[in-house]
């Protein structure tokens, strides 16, 4: 059944977040990546028990942004862009589960519009890669 505009859930709950240290380490060691400056995405097909097909983590390195408030603003912007576009991933991942990490790379803070564009491009790239992986 196709999702209609009013059927899409735009929430971002705790169970959609990637919190497991083991899963994060596995994502770093075996995940595939793609970059659209200033954001890098690392993703990996996974088998976890959840009602959601995607678990997500947002990272802004302390090395590049010393002030916690700056890091938090950038993470909020990335989360919001993801939250509004996550239905694209959910439609593409019918029976698969995936872990995703978005890493902010730039030393400069950018506005929400630029982050939104990067997240959209990266999510489309992930959908294309996952689609090609599923066909193999």
Task: Explain what the structure shows.
The protein is α+β, with helices and mostly antiparallel strands and 136 residues long. The chain has a four-stranded mixed sheet with strand order 1-2-4-3, with helices on both faces. α2 (68-92) runs parallel beside α3. Residues 1-6 have low confidence and may be disordered. It has one domain: Ribosomal Protein S5, domain 2, CATH 3.30.230.10. The chain has helices at 21-30, 68-92, 112-135, and strands at residues 32-36, 39-46, 54-59, 97-104. The chain contains three helices and four strands, in the order αβββαβα. The chain is globular and about 40 Å long. α2 (68-92) links the parallel β3 and β4.
Comma- or semicolon-separated keywords:
four-stranded mixed sheet, alpha+beta, disordered N terminus, 136 residues
What is the CATH first-level class name?
A: Alpha Beta
Order of helices and strands: HEEEHEH
**CATH architecture assignment:** 2-Layer Sandwich
**Class based on secondary structure composition and strand pairing:** alpha+beta
